[in-house]
Amino acid sequence: MSLVANPGRSRVPDSSSKGEVMSSSTTHAVPEKPRLTVIGTGYLGATHAVAMASLGYEVLGLDVDQAKVDRLASGDVPFFEPGLPELLREVMDSGRLRFTTSFDEAAEFGDVHFICVGTPQAHGSHAANLTYVESAFTELAARITRPALLVGKSTVPVGTAARLIGLVRAAAQDPELIDLAWNPEFLREGYAVQDTLRPDRLVFGVTTAWAEKMLRAAFAPILEVGTPLVIADLPTAELVKVAANSFLATKISYINAMAEVCEATGADVNVLASALAYDDRIGGRFLKPGLGFGGGCLPKDIRAFAHRAEELGVGQAVAFLHEVDSINNRRRRRTVDLVRELADGDLKGVRVAALGAAFKPNSDDIRDAPALDVADMLRAEGADVIVYDPQAMDNARRDYPQLTYAPTFAECVKGAQVVVLLTEWQKFRDADPEMMGELVERKAMVDGRHALDADAYRAAGWEYRALGRPAQPRTVQLVEDAKDQVMVAAT
Ligand code: UGA
Q1: Residue 297 designated active-site
Q2: Over the range 381-401, which residues count as b (16 or more CB within 10 Å of their CB) and which as e?
Q3: For residue 322, is it within any domain?
Q4: Atom of ligand 1 nearest to the CA of 296
Q5: The domain containing residue 346 runs over which residues?
Q6: How many domains does the structure of the chain reveal?
Q7: For 128, which DSSP code?
Q8: Which atom of ligand 1 has the smallest separation from the CA of 188?
Q9: Residue where a domain terminates, one of 305, 326, 347
């Protein structure tokens, strides 16, 4: 692999000695502005299709779900993502973006096909379910009659691309027309548009010069503004994504492990995290303690990575990821413990206001959402839980019909004996503790996300608790001792 400072020249990695190469041909033409298709229009695919069309490309989005295609084609984004609906309508008006359910149409249209379908956790296993990826590649390959680059963007276990080469070759009418590349995606939900248009870096996993040239043409406007580009072989490109998500998950679990130690010692994990963050080598991002990570990516990606490493005989190398997962899950149970403590040890019949359902703010995604997991554990212990989320109510109602939902924030907290903040939406951060205090029956707050001003809540008469922070505020006083020395003592 060579690290290439964009826009300098690069060397296509010699993967012929390491594994499968799709095509020996490097003689196909490279269109100046390739026509793009995006297969799978979920969070990743819909955003990618809209963003590429906004950069001036002709784009055809494909999904097997007719209802999703109809909604997108009418300018309606089927999930909550700030900025995306406006951009979708803009590019639909330009005529550069269309949607279809037809693989025939996609194969006929595209020079570069981006495969963005999901790789959910398989039922009853930690492995990734690759059915949708395999089917997208082979359905396309079977129909391609002109030079085309198939580019995987989905998060897959390392080695998948090499296996797909065999499947594509077997399905293709003429394998020499097709090349395969991997281009992992690093967008965050809630920031999907900006992450797609201005990514930290692009990674191209390629085996031929033609594939690299096609990808450079497909991402020209992003590369032209100096976005760093890493050219890699296929397995490295696949690994970059799971390695990145594993690192992020590990960082979150690291600070949450420190929170557990803080709880046993009376130390304050918030102060600890801010002191650590001043060290540039550590950095403060993804060092926020609390309820931990959820969503459709981090939890399933670390499990699938550990599973794949075991298959490859290097399970021990990433065995720590099991611990990262366990620390993360313990935070959910510990949040329930804190609510129980504030309810005097018994949750039966206690009215709990659960603020948040989405796995993080600025998203309506509830996949593996810590918030809903905690709300459901509280309900299972007999609490009278009422949930409110600014955006994720429909999804939550669908997947957690056993929970009760409030139509508004105020209705949720009205009469509550304990309030628990589970997703740190700005609306909850901005709430006035005095005004909220008027609505609740008892002023007891568990801040599951370390998102609230503890002093302001305590000043307004609330009992405030957060994971990894002392139950009572510690004041640091300057004390003069008999010898006139100034020393710092914690009381
Ligand atoms: C994550 C990665 O950040 C993206 O780079 C990646 O592209 C994406 O997965 C993916 O694989 O598609 P995302 O799932 O949108 O993005 O969400 P994050 O912003 O990473 O947050 C994940 C979880 O960690 C959330 O539940 C959040 O509340 C939690 N978190 C995050 C913390 O508990 N502490 C932190 O300091 C940061």
Answers
A1: yes
A2: bebbbbbbbbbbbebbeeebe
A3: yes
A4: 14
A5: 330-465
A6: 3
A7: B
A8: 15
A9: 326
